[in-house]
Amino acid sequence: MSTILVTGGTGTLGRLVVERLRADGHEVRVLSRHAQPYAVDLREGGGALDAAVSGVDTIVHCASSPKGDEQAAAHLIRAARGAGVAHLVHISIVGVDRVPFRYYRSKLAVERLIEESGIGWSVLRATQFHDLLVMLLQVLSKLPVLLLPAGVRDQPVEVDEVADRLAGLAAGAPAGRVEDMGGPEVRTLESLARAYLKATGRRRAVVNVPLWGAAYRGFRDGGHLAPRQAVGTGTFEEYLARRYGGGGPARKGSERSTS
Asked: What residues does the NAD(P)-binding domain cover (predicted)?
């Protein structure tokens, strides 16, 4: 079996990839800012990163942050080339080339760095994880009125299924850009928000608000969706049931919507 380094190996996705690779018999190194013995901030690089990738056959790059992704990827690629890494697997996001959102632009730039690295590579784009959607709805529901961008849909995918796909790619030969991976359903944000409110027993009015700007138009037009690659099987309601155990009953007023 091979030696595989997983960046962001303590995160939501990375830790699941680590579990699967170890279960399959691979030697796995976990790299994150605080995970010993490979505690590395990729944005800084340096000798600790060189030591982490020494003797590694494959890297699965799951680490990401709102700032510094391109710099982190450049440091990782430099170290990987120096260590003779044969395969670099990267998780990206559906729509990074269609939605002019700042974070998406950065993810697309990272893809291009990997493609031009001279290292064998595989890139998987996935739609948003259920966990991320819930994080967004938690923030939005802090107000008495839950405000949503009008006309936007989403296609959340189960992170466990993405981890399975990444682990499979890491165990294989470089495959280039593989088919996108989307969740089983394309849903309006309102329907997803209502499912979340029901599962958590919260009472909120739901208001759809038209926004402006190129990024909003990209999301409204579905640039972040992959309806033809709806290969995921876990639904948002199934995720909510596992996380909240069914939540409280919907209370009077929780179904009110204003568009």
From this structure: 8-131
The Cβ-side half-sphere exposure at 118, using a 13 Å CA radius, reads: 10
**Nearest Cα residue to 97 out of 78, 73, 125:** 125
Q: What is the pLDDT of residue 246?
A: 56
Nearest-angstrom CA–CA distance, 12 and 145: 29
| Interacting residues of 87 by C-beta distance below 8 A, sequence separation 6+ | 57, 58, 59, 119, 120, 121, 122, 170, 173, 174
Exposure pattern of 63-78 as b/e (b: 16+ CB <10 Å)?
Answer: bbeeeebbebbbbbbe
> C-alpha 203: how far from its chain's center?
29
Give the residue-averaged pLDDT of 140-169: 97
Q: Which domains does the chain have, with CATH numbers?
A: 3-127+159-177 (3.40.50.720)
User: Are the C-beta atoms of residues 182 and 257 closer than 8 Å to each other?
Assistant: no
Q: Residue 255: pLDDT above 60?
A: no
The phi and psi torsions of 231 (rounded to 5 degrees) equal -90, -15
